[in-house]
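Researcher: I'm preparing a figure for a lab meeting and need a structural model of a single chain. I don't have an experimental structure, so a prediction will have to do for now. The sequence is pasted below. Please return the structure as tokens so I can convert it later.
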Amino acid sequence: MKIRLGFVSNSSSSSYTCDLCGTESEASWDTPDGWRYCDTGHCLCEDEDVQEVNEEDFDTEEEYYAAVKTNNDSEMICPICSFKKVGVFDMDRYLQEVTNISREEVLAAVKLTNKRRRVLHTFDYQQYVSIKTGRTANQTEEEVLSRFKNYDEFLDFMKKE
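Model: Understood. Here is the structure written out token by token.
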């Protein structure tokens, strides 16, 4: 089963997927205009509201460096790394763990309506799980953000499962 994350390349072009909203874009050589990566590799499209860490916004140099350190030494405050939002791929993995609904099960259900479908898209999976469990994406995101203290704790949970 094909799963596309972040940057995907083939011989003629490169495809980029926003880790926050799932928007896809193709570029022939370089990252699409307005798209950015945080230092941990999250790819964010131009539509995402990304806050910059500006030295002028802090009273002391120590506060500035503490903010940069908190954001993986990046001068961009990544909404995923700072655990303000849950990325689409992280949400997908979390749902697989807590619901025990496999991607294979969902692909089989999708193929009942579209026999030619070979790839399961992240949003197809999340929509199917939402219908099956009766919870919205916003409810699941709130659950994740309240269940874990920070992104590292969330990642540790995902590694254990």
